[in-house]
Amino acid sequence: MKTDQSIKIQEKQTFPLTIKRLGINGEGVGYFKKQVVFVPGALPGEEVVVEATKINPKFAEAKIKKIRIKSPHRVQPPCPVYEQCGGCQLQHLKYSQQLKEKRDIVIQSLERHTRLAVDSLDIRETIGMEDPWGYRNKSSFQLAGRDGKVLAGLYGLNSHQLIDIEHCAVQHSQTNEAVNAVKNILEELKITIYNEKTRKGIVRTIVTRVGVQSGELQIVLITNQKELPKKDQIIEKIQKRLPNVKSIVQNINEQKTSLIFGEETVPLAGEEFIQETLGDLQFELSARTFFQLNPVQTIKLYNEVKTAAALTGKEKIVDAYCGVGTIGLWLADQAAEVRGMDVIPESIEDAKKNAKRHGFTNTKYVPGKAEEVLPKWVKKGWKPDVIIVDPPRTGLDGRLIETILQTASEKLIYISCNPSTLAKDIQMLSTKYEVKYIQPVDMFPQTAHVETVCSLERK
Hints:
Helix content: 25-40%
Distance between the termini: 50 Å
Strand order of the largest sheet: 8-7-6-9-10-11-12
Oligomer: single chain
């Protein structure tokens, strides 16, 4: 009888490790007795002593006990709660090196999940930010009450302990200011804070969003019940302390859930939405509208899509997973027709409004799944020249891949937020499409996330 030889490392075992690369979640990756070990906080090229914290059949997790040889790219993270928070994974790595490592994460995914000759692919340098701090236009901070104080922040890494965040280094300064102001107001007015265990208390979460171009601010109070005590006083104090507030909204979430928003949204003061501008396009953002979190990099991303599409004005475009229509509208003035679909009906309504507001008459938006809608259009004789996909982290639905292969449009532009699923999907698409180039874009500096624009053409 064969015994399992795969588990060589014991829990709490201490051993030396050389870090070879960064993993997809920003952790250091090394090998001990041919077994993969993931070490959060360790950097490529470092020699560390680690302690095993968790043993899985295929890999081990460990924590740093000591750094023997430090990476020349290691820096002091500016955030005081960086270690506990877990919202960022790479603040301890110099930004120029973050960009190189993100490109490397894309390469590793392609090597692992495709049979392509990765060395001969055109994988470009990551497009970064001039200022990689204070870029997030939206924050969702959970609340907790402690000794009469209101804390606002995120739950700690692998724990259910709320980390109070006074100033988040990657948040836009206006969102930080807004959270602190609202927190103080709730404290002064002695508004009760929701407690998950007892399920008592009123305010659960503060969501803030700023229009980076317009300077307009939106505040959403997410409550455990419809009635909001001292509502008028809360509104008055918010308006007084935050002159840029354009929209104050209440969202009611009475469920025992980790989801932030409930189904019911009630306007409290001002408009129901704020304005945001991307290039020449204006968007109205209501409390629950999805919108890119880093508008500065979004423009660079969308321009990469435009370059990859290389439009002449005659093309028919499909914008799958279209959301509120941002990508399709970015290209609409250079295309014959843009058609988009999305499973969220509200997004489709917003996309129609956005197209109308900008005077586009060559757009069509329908609710539904791309893998169901697209074949119907093709059957009716409408065939796209360019298909643009921007799927969630799980990648493309298998049926959509089949549909794309059957439709066989000349160009396919794949916007990905997960290099692993991108690589797996490219492998399936490679029967009919070849990769022209891959352009990584850093949408979330200081984190392990990497976005890519992959340009594919029919063979």
